[in-house]
Design a protein that fits this description.
alpha/beta; six-stranded parallel β-sheet; 12 strands; globular
């Protein structure tokens, strides 16, 4: 089969989704399929200056993806990810033009995320139209893939479509991790770390408030933010307003250095706003659950992610407003550092684990009749 994969970012871009679609393209090529991987030509680390600029950038991305998709020639499958928002609709149009089957890989759910986080005042009639058009896109799919049970439930209830769950896999190769950094770092440099994109979907006020409580208690721990994102400047301004003295801001690090950089921290942090339950799955989580460090999750307390992490070793799950509890948890680890079990890398969900599920999915797509 000729498979056209559409995503805003493709390798060698640093976006996590670029890595995911690149791995999937390599797997399909290895099975003998012809794959055309199409991106918009934008850089993940270059952010729009304002909402108007972002809208213009996303519309241009849609046009570039559609134009390049048409130029790719006849195909059997158009597989779309979720960026730019609304890509499902552009991919559905391309699939119709090429008389191909449409497969949507729902890494994020739109327009839900945009409405929940964008701060737009969208009339109810327009919202209803957006959901109606999106429903047509989902129902035109030969297959829909999502990332966890919450996303599957949302798609079923909102659009009346069944989705298959295939989790995103590790984006780093743990076999290449040096053995020395596995050792617990000394307590004197105690750091709790948020690494990766700090976007509109991510909760950061709780982290800063908890750090304020820790500093008021004279607990010598440092809160570090590593990466970038649309909310980074807002978080920096809020940290200054709170007069925090033990917060540091680091840039993104190269992929080859990421795991060892994470191991230099004492506690890791993953967050998402409560309103994003079932609308996204934090890509950084796949790596962090493998590392021998305590993990804080701040987000929807009853969601699929929280349920899974409650069963994990050394993981704490907190509501977005629970700054006091977060501060106590961080202080607990500081006072009892280092942990008694020896540090060992945990097994993680890899592309080798996910690939058989994708193979089964494409085998069903290749069948003469696709049952939905």
């Amino acid at each position: 089969m000729h498979v056209v994969i559409l995503n805003q970012y493709v390798p060698p871009d640093l976006s996590p989704t670029a890595k995911l679609v690149g791995d999937l393209a390599d797997g399909l090529r290895g099975d003998g399929h012809r794959v055309t991987l199409i991106g918009s030509g934008l850089d993940y680390e270059v952010r729009a200056r304002n909402k108007a600029a972002r809208v213009g950038r996303e519309l241009n991305a849609h046009w570039q993806l559609f134009r390049r998709g048409v130029a790719a020639g006849p195909c059997d499958v158009v597989l779309s990810a979720s960026s730019p928002p609304g890509l499902l609709l552009t991919a559905s149009l391309l699939a119709a033009v090429r008389q191909a089957k449409s497969v949507h890989w729902a890494l994020d759910l739109y327009p839900e995320l945009a409405l929940a986080l964008g701060g737009w005042s969208v009339p109810q009639l327009l919202q209803a139209l957006l959901f109606a058009v999106t429903r047509l896109g989902y129902r035109a799919n030969a297959r829909t893939v999502c990332l966890d049970a919450d996303m599957r439930s949302w798609i079923r209830q909102k659009y009346g479509v069944e989705a298959e769950v295939i989790r995103p896999w590790l984006l780093q190769e743990l076999a290449s991790v040096d053995t020395a950094p596995l050792a617990y770092p000394p307590r004197g440099s105690f750091t709790w770390l948020y690494s990766g994109n700090l976007g509109q979907a991510h909760e950061w006020e709780t982290l800063l408030t908890a750090q304020r409580l820790l500093e008021d208690r004279h607990c010598p721990v440092t809160l570090a933010f590593q990466g970038g994102g649309a909310s980074r400047a807002l978080a920096q301004a809020r940290a200054a307003q709170l007069k925090l003295t033990r917060v540091v801001w680091r840039p993104y690090v190269p992929e080859a250095e990421l795991t060892n950089t994470l191991l230099a921290a004492h506690v890791h942090v993953v967050t998402q706003k409560r309103c994003t339950r079932g609308l996204l799955w934090p890509s950084k989580l796949g790596l962090l659950v493998c590392l021998p460090r305590p993990l804080i999750f701040i987000g929807p307390e009853q969601g699929a992610i929280a349920t899974e992490l409650r069963a994990a070793e050394n993981a704490g799950v907190f509501a977005p407003e629970a700054a006091e509890a977060v501060a106590e948890w961080v202080q607990h680890w500081y006072e009892r550092w280092p942990p008694s079990p020896p540090p060992v890398l945990r097994s993680g969900w890899t592309f080798a684990d996910a690939w058989p599920l994708w193979q089964q999915l494409f085998a069903r797509i290749a069948a003469p009749t696709v049952k939905r």
